Amino acid sequence: MEGHGRNSGFLDKLWFIDGYYPNSARGLMISHSSKRLGVIGVADGWSSNRLADAVSEKTGRRHLIQMDHVRLDVHSGEAYHEDLRLSSFDALIAKKIGASYSPLLTERMKMLKFLHDQGTRIFSNPDSMIAAMDRLSCTLELRRAGIPMPPTVITEDVDQAVTAAREFGKAILKPLYTSKARGMAVVESNSDARATIEAFQSANNPLIYIQKMLELPGYDLGLVFLGGEYVETYARVSNGNSWNTTIRSGGRYEPHAPTAEVIDLARRAQDEFKLDFTCVDIAETSDGPVVFEVSAFGGFRGLHQAHGMDAASLYVDYVLRELDR
To answer: What domains sit in the chain, N to C, each tagged with a CATH number?
Structure first.
């Protein structure tokens, strides 16, 4: 089956870093708005700052809100970042709510949900982000929907995990809160399996998430969606020296033209979460494509490096259009 390029229906919404976009899109590009937008992110995060810069370019104001500096007054229903009252914004865009993944992020997300329920518009909906944010809830939601995934076992019992490792032959131990393969470990069905699993569990992983390692073609895919519409795909290509393809382990981003089957699978996966901006991680295997996860926040760098696309500007334009509905 032929690979499919960029979604033609989405061309009208694309804005490239070099400034080019189709003539038909000129009426849709937001050059300036009176809306007041805040970006929830981290001070040293590339994507957080790029999104805050894009907001500044569109509105003339730049507000980067760090959740560890937010004060929520439950009695009044108001939240503040320094002297900024968060309910005074027309919308908040959540890009990152912590420098590293941990259960603390769920607590911060509950604060955002409280604000959202009080009437503050938040992109994406906190309920959607909570459902996708930790690996277990994301996996269970995908499997309930019948989305194909690698065989996976979840247990607190080391003996059960050892049994799973032996059945899988080779597997990956994955923390529930992580990104870019941090904290993951490969376990094989040999005499070291128990020691590997015990070490993983003792490293603050009481619930063991063990997933069969698949044979990949040296890359996996990130399919990006904005407002439920397919945008583009990038590949994370391994450098050949690591079991994973992450940039952190020496991988690189490349453009990729996925098949219609892969796009349809990613579309069905992300549709379970109703996120405003997301990336669906997919692997192409000899048995067909499988989904690893749906990102609660999505990433900008893959589109930037593989396609020269400014995803932050796309996202801000989308938010402003949604607010004008």
So the answer is: 20-132+311-323 (3.40.50.20), 152-212 (3.30.1490), 216-307 (3.30.470.20)
Which helix H or strand E contains 65, and what residues bound it? strand 64-65
Between the alpha carbon of residue 55 and those of residues 47, 277, 301, 306, 323, the distances in Å are 12, 15, 17, 23, 14
The answer to whether the predicted template modeling score (pTM) of the entire model surpasses 0.85 is yes
CB 260 within 8 A of CB 322: no
* Type of residue numbered 258: P
- pLDDT, tens digit (0-9, with 9 covering 90-100), for 204-245: 999 999 999 998 888 999 999 999 999 999 999 988 766 666
CA distance 199 to 181: 17
Nearest one of 159, 152, 158, 147 to 136, comparing CA atoms: 152
Decide if 189 contacts 170 (C-beta within 8 A): yes
Give the Cα separation of 61 and 29 in Å (integer). Answer: 18
Query: Rg of the Cα trace of the chain?
Result: 20
Strand order in the sheet with 37-40: 64-65, 37-40, 91-94, 122-123
- Condensed to tens digits (0 to 9), the pLDDT of residues 253-312 reads 999 999 999 999 999 999 999 999 999 999 999 999 999 999 999 989 999 999 999 999
Taking phi over 0 as left and psi of -120 to 50 as alpha, with beta for the rest, 236 belongs to: beta
Burial of 189 (0-12, 13-18, 19+ CB in 10 A): middle
- Encoded tokens for 236: 């994370």
φ and ψ at residue 273, rounded to 5 degrees: -110, -20
